[in-house]
Amino acid sequence: MSLNEQVLSYPIPADAALEPPAEWAELRGKCPVAHVTLPSGDRATLLTRYADVKQVLADPRFTRQLNAPDAARLSAEGGGVFNSEIATIIPDGGEEHQHWRRLVGKWFTAKRMTALRPSMTEIADQLIDDMVKRGLPGDLRAGLGFPLPVYVICDMLGVPAEDRDRFSYWSDTLLNLTRYGKAEIDAAQGEFFQYMSDHVAAKRSEPGEDLLSELIAAGGPEDGGLADIQILVTGMALLVAGHETTANMIGKMVSMLLADRSRWEALLADPSLIRTAVEESLRLDANSGFGLPRYLREETEVSGTVLPRGTTVVCSMAAANRDESAFEAAAEMDLSRSPNPHLSFGSGAHSCLGQALARTELQVVLEVLLRKLPTLELAVPVEELERVEGLAVGGLRTVPVRW
């Protein structure tokens, strides 16, 4: 049976933690618009080619409104970050969405990131010292990858970092595909909502130097600001987005660079490659998770295939990032690749708001690791690295290292 007639289960499993499923190349070549079954049992359409993914992410007819009655549910339990009410509170498109991005985006400019760099470097230095004190082997994910982005995003939101274990659990339930049951998800989201609600109320009475205080100070919708519920949900969304993805990416990036020690040696010899190495790690990440789902409000054509209204499309940016028609030697890791127009942060009006933050964190991690632990290596064969399962974001369970 050809791929065109076959319905694949999605996400497609891969044999190795850092490698893509073999099906991606086959789909890009023969079946760029494929039928898949999601963890919920619902059907969706999967896109794997660079041009198609880029087109759909930039097309306003493909929306994030996955709570439409005929939209596919990602997980059987529903209520994840894509299907929940939360997704509808932040405006999805048009002028309202641009307005929201302008208000929140002021906190994520390259200029702000440059100002944050020294404190990020200090946090990374301290976390690595603590990891070294705990002795060998270290777990780079638990010791550095996870805490660094959490400290940074908590600081930006004015949230106490000692609550980070709760945030981690709440985030995981929002990113659920197959790991949690409905009752557990509902309870966790209720707690998260209450926590943020109390936090916003506290900021209202005692503002600080943080993003939420600034959003409150901008006034309500009548003053050109956001409604209370939008501020609250923005806080939740940034907390989830700000820690899971980057925390996982730190572990994957360092693993990719250590999987072939000559890459690490090249960076030690020439640290000016750090910036392009970060971009190439983002492009080559074969374990980025679910991809971006979009719901189609009207009939549209993609790659010569007519998609009816009501179709749920999944854009696999990770598969698109390995498209030979967009990147020369796409399967190879080229630490000096430039330009590198990868789609890891999406594209168009909804491209990732926090991409300057993620890039800065990834660059700082490499700078500090290369300086402090030049002899760093994986403490297990790369074949033994294990993927995080059952969530909408991809990552490694642990990253055992020695130095």
TrEMBL record:
Keywords: Heme, Iron, Metal-binding, Monooxygenase, Oxidoreductase
Xref: InterPro entries: Cyt_P450, Cyt_P450_B, Cyt_P450_CS, Cyt_P450_sf
Key word Heme present: yes
GO molecular function: heme binding; iron ion binding; monooxygenase activity; oxidoreductase activity, acting on paired donors, with incorporation or reduction of molecular oxygen
UniProt signal peptide: none
Pfam families according to UniProt: p450
Necessary cofactors: heme
Family assignment from sequence similarity: Belongs to the cytochrome P450 family.
Name of the protein in question: Cytochrome P450
Gene source species: Streptosporangium roseum (strain ATCC 12428 / DSM 43021 / JCM 3005 / KCTC 9067 / NCIMB 10171 / NRRL 2505 / NI 9100)
